[in-house]
Amino acid sequence: MEERKKHYCYRLTLREDLRDFRNWKKEEEEAVGTHFNYLKNLLGEGKLVMAGRTVNMPMTDKDMGIAILETDSEEEARTIMENDPAVVNGVMKAELFEFSLALFRH
What CATH number does the domain containing 42 carry? Predict the structure, then answer.
C-alpha cells in the first residue's frame, strides 16, 4: 500500500531592512526572481500546492509569504525550504510547519 504524502507549510519573512523597498539592491531582486522560479518548478513537479504573500504597504513584521508543500517526508520538505534561493541568499527567513490541508478549491 502506497504511503500517503504529507503537507507542510513554510512561512517566509522578509529581512527587516528589506521591508522598505528602497533598500533593495540588484542581488536581492535577483534572489527573489530565482525564488519565484524555484517555486514554479516545484509546482510543475507536483510538490508545491500553493504559494503567496501578504500585501501591505508599508510592510511590517506581520507580513509573510507561505508555500504549502506536498512531500513524502518532513526531511524532503525541510530540504526544499532550506534550498529556497530567498533563504539561501539571506533575503528571507523560513520556518517549517506540518500542515493539515482541510479545504481547497480545485
Answer: 3.30.70.1060
Segments forming the whole domain that contains residue 83: 6-98
- Nearest-10 Cα torsion for 37, 86, 95, 48: 0
Grid cell digits, residue 68: 504549502
pLDDT by residue, tens only, the chain of 106 residues? 557 899 999 999 999 999 988 999 999 999 999 999 999 999 999 999 999 999 988 888 899 999 999 999 999 999 999 999 999 999 999 999 999 988 887 7
Distance CA(86)–CA(64), nearest Å, equals: 13
Global pTM value: 0.91
